[in-house]
Design goal:
267 residues; alpha/beta; 8-stranded parallel β-barrel; 11 helices; 8 strands; binds phosphoenolpyruvate; binds manganese (II) ion
Length: 267
């Protein structure tokens, strides 16, 4: 099937205007209104963040851990948008999440790695999104299956969602690895050859699982000409309710971004 992914989208317009990688940052999870607003203000002060992320519904591996604040957190994201001036993105895994996120004015949605693996779930999301053409980012499935990743993008395309981007967050492996999720870079490159116009964003936080790996992973992605980065940020990373080991403060993110070398693109 000829790819219907639009070339003029939320993502490509930002990229063309900046001429440098898209930067998405924010906490793994929205925890409190103060934490969300403090993170957003710290990020906005860096002057280069394009989109604020926060998990509202968290897909945790085992029950009994923090599973997100739920729909109430969308009010905090609305304040980020209105008072801090950053567009916002959340993970959606069910049609109800889509309905709630859009009702609260969330600008961009993303599909998480545990949802991309399930064609039934992706199809339900695609059906719920039909007619909206809201921008959607699709994380790779947890398992190293590029066809499943492509299939999720195609399901959205067929529902008329043409403002798409892919997020590479690494793949589960049984083999011992220094990474939380092995990057297996060639799979992301293969996706890009299937969808040449699709912006490709790297998530070094979930690939590395450790804050000291953020810089080398992000640099590798930029050396491979990725279009953007998504990095988890928290005002007090060690006490985060999810993914504490991989989050950094907005100030530390600012230092990392200064250390990264990337080429500017002219549109
Ligand atoms: C997240 O972005 O916090 C998340 C749950 O990611 P993933 O779907 O990549 O595991
Ligand atoms: Mn996370």
């Amino acid at each position: 099937m000829e790819s219907a992914i639009a070339t003029d989208t939320f993502f490509t317009r930002l990229l063309a205007a900046k001429g440098s990688p898209l930067l998405i940052a924010g906490p793994c999870s929205a925890e409190t209104e103060e934490q969300v607003l403090a993170t957003a203000r710290g990020l906005q002060a860096l002057g280069k963040i394009d989109l604020f992320r926060a998990g509202i519904w968290k897909p945790r591996t085992r029950p009994g851990s923090f599973e997100g604040v739920g729909v109430g957190g969308l009010n905090w994201l609305r304040r980020v948008k209105q008072e801090v001036g950053l567009p916002v993105t959340v993970e959606v895994a069910t049609p109800r999440h889509v309905e709630d996120a859009l009702a609260y004015g969330v600008d961009v949605l993303w599909i998480g790695a545990r949802t991309t693996v399930n064609p039934f779930a992706v199809q339900e999301l695609a059906d719920a999104l039909a007619g909206t053409n809201v921008p959607v980012m699709v994380k790779n499935p947890v398992n190293p299956d590029v066809a499943l990743w492509a299939g999720a993008l195609e399901r959205l395309e067929r529902s008329g969602i043409t403002q798409l981007a892919a997020i590479h967050r690494g793949f589960s492996t049984f083999a011992p690895s220094r990474y939380r999720n092995a990057p297996t870079w060639q799979l992301a490159i293969e996706l890009k050859t299937r969808f040449p116009h699709l912006p490709l964003i790297c998530d070094p936080s979930h690939i590395g699982g450790r804050r000291d790996l953020l810089l080398p992973i992000a640099q590798k992605a930029l050396d491979l000409d990725y279009d953007g980065l998504m990095i988890e940020t928290h005002p007090d990373p060690d006490n985060a309710l999810s993914d504490a080991a991989q989050q950094v403060t907005p100030e530390r993110l600012g230092e990392i971004l200064t250390e990264l070398k990337y080429r500017y693109r002219s549109s």
